[in-house]
Each structure stands twice: as C-alpha cells, then as structure tokens.
Amino acid sequence: MAGGPPILGYFAVWYVINVAYNYTNKKALQALPAPYLVAAVQIGAGILYILPVWLLGIRAPPNLNRKELLALLPLGVIHAIGQLVTVLSLGAGSISFVNVVKSLEPFFNVVFAMVFMRDFVPLPVLLTLVPVVVGVGIASSADMEFTWLCFACAMGSNIFFSLRGVLSKVTMKSIRPEANLGPANLFGVLTIIAFLTALPIALLMEGATASRAWDKAIASGAQPMQLACTIAISGLSFYLYNEVSFLALDAVDPVTHAVGNTIKRVILILLSVVAFGTQMTTLSAAGSTIAIIGVFMYSIAKAKIPAKKKAA
C-alpha cells in the first residue's frame, strides 16, 4: 500500500512522543511533587511551539472573530482542568493504573454524545463496554499502588477530556470555514486558553510552597537544569503527541484508529512496569487485560455503525 510507510511513520512518532511524555512527566513529579505547577508549565510549553509556527508562517494561524473565540473559551477551561487532574493522577499513582482507569473514557464519550449531540449508540455496542467497567473494577481492587486520589483524578480526566471532545464537535459546527480552525489549530487555541486558566489555579494551590518544593528537590539530589529540562520536555512532548495523533488518526480508517489506541495503552502499561518497576498482581494484570480488550471491542463495534443521515 502506497500510503503505508507514511502512516506507519505517524504512528511510530506518536508512540515515541507519547512514551517520552509519560516518562518525563513521571520523572518530573517524582523529583518535584508539585502537580498543579508542573501541569501549568506543561501546558505553557505548548505555546512556545505553536506561536512561532504561526508567526513564522509555517502554518496559517486561525482567524477567529470575537463570537468564535468566546465559544472556544469553555473548551479551553475544560482542557486545562482535564490536564490538571491527569497530572494529579499520574503523581498519585502508577502510569499503568492511570491508563487502566482511563480506558473508561469511551463510556463517558457515549454519555456526553447522547446528552449534547443526541447521538445514541446501539445496545450491542454499549454492551461491549461492560468488560471495560468490569476490568477496571478488578484492576482497581487488586492494584498494589491504588489510591483514591489517583482513581478520582483519573476518572476526572476521563470526564473532562471526553467532554472536551464532544463539545469540540458541537462548537466546530458554528465556526466559519474561513476561520482556518482545523484540528491542529484548534488544539493550539485551546492550549493558550488552558494556560491562562491553569496558571492562576496552580499559583493559588502551590504558589506559596513552590520555592520550598524546588529547594527540597535540589537537596534530594535533583540537578536544577536537568529537572527544568525534564519538565520542559514533558510539556513539549505533551503538545506534540496530541498534534501528531491528529495526523495519525486522520490518515487511517476507524478500525486502524482503534488498533492504534489500544496498542498505545499497552505500551504505556509496559513502560510503567519496565521503566518504573511497577508491580502488578495476577488479578491486576487480568483486570487490565479485560479492560483493554473491552475498549478494543467497543472501538471496532462502533466503527461498524453506519453513519446516520442528519435530518434536514
């Protein structure tokens, strides 16, 4: 297939950058347990990438009017809160457990799609989510690093990122074609709004203790420049893996999309075990496997639903 190599390249880059984000993010949080500030800096790092891309003409910038910008403000706030709780969850638990809980994201996608888009999924497709719920339940009960904070924040990540995805589809219908707001530019705009939202929250929650936390990290053996670079790389890789994922998933059919997402989650669980020595009991591994297989089954089943014709 002529398009094979470029598509494989997209997926390879997506996986590599995604692994880089999760690895550097966990390393940063282990050295500097200030998740609110780390998350805010990570979001802000994306601005250092997207603004030069627009200003240098590498990509045409969006051309939004006031009404369109106001419509995107809630999405940026939701994106900010989603990233904040995601980093909180990764700081409170293992990468593997967070990814198992985040396998429940399709469940929330279904709920929000029904509420905001009147998009109802057939019962046989809904039933494929049962193994996901069961698998997450088993993995949660048996996980050796389980904490309620990690579980709650990972669930919050599911809620906010699912809500962002569904509301983005609804909002994009009201954006003019000449506004030049494709998926990549949309993510850039949401990143700017999210940073302006996340920074005040981070300063409120951890601003008073930030200097003390940094000094403690350095006293514990962290190198200042290395720690700063780790946080910066985690932020840049967070932005880039999202952008590359748009290119990868835009270039393939829904079934390949499902396979790609499933493989990504497996890779991250393996990263947690290999790079951070996360211990998984037999029951926890079984629950994780059931949940991931359930997500794959759901994605395949949903991909086979014929596109509904919209009423005039």
Automatic annotation (TrEMBL):
Residues 8-299 form the Sugar phosphate transporter domain. Pfam families: TPT. It is a multi-pass membrane protein. It is found in: Membrane. Coiled coil: none annotated. Its main location: membrane. Keywords: Membrane, Transmembrane, Transmembrane helix. The chain crosses the membrane at residues 7-24, 36-57, 69-100, 120-139, 146-166, 186-205, 267-300. InterPro entries: EmrE-like, Sugar_P_trans_dom, TPT_transporter. GO terms for cellular component: membrane. PANTHER family: SOLUTE CARRIER FAMILY 35 (PTHR11132). This is Sugar phosphate transporter domain-containing protein. It comes from Diacronema lutheri.
